[in-house]
Amino acid sequence: MLAPLTARTVSSRTALKREIDSVRRDGYCIVDQELEMGLRSLAAPVHDQSGSVVAAINISTQAARYSAAQVRREFVTPLVQAAQAISSDVAMAQLRLPSRAST
After folding, report:
1. Is 66 contained in some domain?
2. Is 3 among the domain residues?
3. What is the pLDDT of residues 5-19, one digit of tens each?
4. Full-model pTM
5. Which of 39, 42, 54, 73 has the most crowded Cβ, counting Cβ within 10 A?
6. Is 57 exposed, middle or buried (CB count within 10 Å of its CB: 0-12, 13-18, 19+)?
């Protein structure tokens, strides 16, 4: 059992593994009051040229202002698109950088 931060925190290893698998498949994560009651967050990964996750972008809102369904409906697509655009920029920057072996 993992130590929960709120009553909504995923605290079993099995449930956490399922959640990680879902995030990997979907390409984003919604944290619905698991870190702090009243806080909903949405995150998407930023990948480098090799496809490794090197960062993430995140938006947060008050749970009273947006339901989880609204967050999913209104913010997932723009956030994932922004993460993909940043990933493309990171990959392009990596192509332009001299390798450590050549310096």
Report:
1. yes
2. no
3. 999 999 999 999 999
4. 0.82
5. 42
6. middle
Buried b (16+ CB within 10 A) or exposed e, 6-26: eeebbeeeeeeeeeeeeeeee
Q: Do 30 and 72 contact (CB within 8 A), yes or no?
A: yes
Rounded to whole angstroms, how far apart are CA atoms 62 and 40?
Answer: 6
Q: Which amino acid is at 22?
A: S
pLDDT in tens, 55-83: 999 999 999 999 999 999 999 999 999 99
Q: Which of the four pLDDT bands, split at 50, 70 and 90, describes residue 102?
A: low
CATH number of domain containing 65: 3.30.450.40
Q: Mention every residue, 6+ apart, whose C-beta is less than 8 A from residue 63.
A: 32, 33, 37, 38, 39, 40
Whether 93 is covered by a domain: the verdict is yes
